[in-house]
Amino acid sequence: xxxxxxxxxxxxxxxxxxxxxxxxxxxxxxxxxxxxxxxxxxxxxxxxxxxxxxxxxxxxxxxxxxxxxxxxxxxxxxxxxxxxxxxxxxxxxxxxxxxxxxxxxxxxxxxxxxxxxxxxxxxxxxxxxxxxxxxxxxxxxxxxxxxxxxxxxxxxxxxxxxxxxxxxxxxxxxxxxxxxxxxxxxxxxxxxxxxxxxxxxxxxxxxxxxxxxxxxxxxxxxxxxxxxxxxxxxxxxxxxxxxxxxxxxxxxxxxxxxxxxxxxxxxxxxxxxxxxxxxxxxxxxxx
Amino acid sequence: xxxxxxxxxxxxxxxxxxxxxxxxxxxxxxxxxxxxxxxxxxxxxxxxxxxxxxxxxxxxxxxxxxxxxxxxxxxxxxxxxxxxxxxxxxxxxxxxxxxxxxxxxxxxxxxxxxxxxxxxxxxxxxxxxxxxxxxxxxxxxxxxxxxxxxxxxxxxxxxxxxxxxxxxxxxxxxxxxxxxxxxxxxxxxxxxxx
Lengths: 287, 194
Description:
The complex is a heterodimer of chains A (287) and B (194). With 287 residues, chain A is of the alpha+beta class. Chain A has helices spanning 117-121, 203-208, 223-241, 248-258, 269-286; strands spanning 18-19, 24-26, 32-33, 37-40, 43-46, 50-55, 58-63, 75-84, 87-91, 98-101, 132-140, 146-149, 156-157, 161-165, 178-181, 185-189, 194-199. In chain A, 21% of the residues lie in helices and 28% in strands. With 194 residues, chain B is an alpha+beta fold. In chain B, a hairpin with a 2-residue loop joins strand 2 (65-71) and strand 3. In chain B, helix 1 crosses helix 2 (156-174). The A-B interface holds A 1, 20-22, 36, 38, 45, 47-50, 63-67, 81, 89, 91, 93, 95-97, 143-145, 163-165, 194, 233, 237, 241, 267 and B 41, 55-60, 64-65, 82-85, 133, 135, 139-142, 172-181.
């Protein structure tokens, strides 16, 4: 059985094509190489399995699956993995854990309060291992780790709900990532794929209890509220399974379509496919 | 690995078990092609499927990439975790670790649940063959872990080659930057012929 040697790379004509790692894309020196490529001896090769994309002179390869890599200004949801000296390490679903510095959080009792030594010694009273935090990416460290901050009343510790994990590429970046759905549930869409679904707590109530921003105590949540939260969580899950973009609009459409089924049926394949097609049709109609 | 070790947490099967012999006639392996009627220069037919271990439900513990590889009777599955936070916080390059395990039912005799030195040696072999193909300099401080499970085995060398191919497919599925995918096959020298 003879093996075919790879064809010589074409000088021009980089049409959108699917490549595997090691495929030569072009040897035209006019092109610059972007993500998902490497170059050797004037030839640009693909380093991932995916689709070749060309924007003007930039050639890159977009893989089918990609790890979340943060950008400054991203709104994310993360889980505290470690309490270190004057900082917390946060799992943000990326190549490296993010870092939340003690100087980047709001101290209870007003933003103007100075950080004291006793704050450094009792960091677990703010965030302990396993807590979920809603934060924004402030900057990068030298090694590429994300530096997070929660310096706004809307950010901070998450309570009263459940976490759903989705593909990061399904959560588009938009003006607002905190939504209150008409069914009475709050949704936090982390751009890193972590989504928090919780009982609705009015903003005025949050501001009134400035000292309780790091409390671990949940509000009392009734059975009906729990069912609504579970239904929304399952809707997000089925959107994720069928690769539909997760926005407040698509979640609302999915929720409305799901009311015909029981909450646990939303996890079955047939119902999931039916509802996802329903949502996609409505989204197209809207566009 | 002593055969006398008894695992107290499990109901133990017989200490020593061998596959029953069904045929009474003696077969010369190379007289007329191979035992499974392949030509001497023919590889076993290949089937690869990527993504069998993708998240089916709420779990955040799904691997970044996975692959299921079949080659004739050999069946191997691989899960890739990472790139994720590595143990060393001062490493300039990422690290690639491989874990290799035969399922207890995969060979024609029952294998132990505990990892043997054989499996550890094969894991190192897999690491040395795959790591050079990964662009580890683009993953500082991160670690990429591959977990290979042999579901059915058919010859040690051929199974190792299948494992290498399976890991390559899983790495591509995970979107990890590679210089090229690694392909492997096993050969034997019979007289003068490969």
